[in-house]
Design goal:
- This protein is of the alpha+beta class.
- The chain folds into two domains: about 60 residues, Nucleotide cyclase, GGDEF domain (Alpha-Beta Plaits); about 50 residues, no CATH class.
- Helix content is about 40%, strand content about 20%.
- The protein contains five helices and three strands; from the N terminus they run H-E-H-E-E-H-H-H.
- A three-stranded antiparallel beta sheet has the order 1-3-2.
- The protein is elongated and about 65 Å long.
């Protein structure tokens, strides 16, 4: 492997020390609130013209779920009222003993998890 990414990984690994994990700002963004972090600030790294923001991973977070941890506070769910109402009606039927199945399906990123989360909070 060659290029900026493996170079960055090697520099962050050296910065981390034994038993520690240090990540870049892009990895920090991707991991959301899955972990507790310590901001190491913008750090000078060999091979990089500018200081690079770095974070030390301290521990798992106390987020209640992966969904919660990977999302920043969200805006209100808009345009899914019909789907939510349908799923809630199906849930009421199931509670009355009228078995039924509901499948939430669709392309990644369209809000399936958000709808499920809204129903659980509802």
């Amino acid at each position: 492997m060659v290029g900026e990414t493996p170079n960055l990984v090697a520099r962050l690994q050296a910065l981390a020390g034994p038993g520690a994990v240090v990540i870049s700002v892009s990895t920090r963004r991707l991991t959301g609130r899955l972990f507790e972090y310590r901001d190491l600030g913008a750090t000078p790294l060999k091979g990089f013209a500018e200081n690079v923001p770095a974070f030390q991973v301290l521990s798992l977070s106390t987020a209640g779920s992966r969904f919660e941890a990977l999302r920043t506070p969200t805006t209100p769910l808009v345009g899914s009222d019909e789907e939510i109402e349908l799923l809630l009606r199906r849930w009421e039927r199931a509670k009355r003993g009228e078995g039924c199945v509901a499948l939430i399906s669709g392309e990644p990123g369209i809000g399936k998890s958000r709808i499920a989360h809204a129903i659980l909070e509802g």
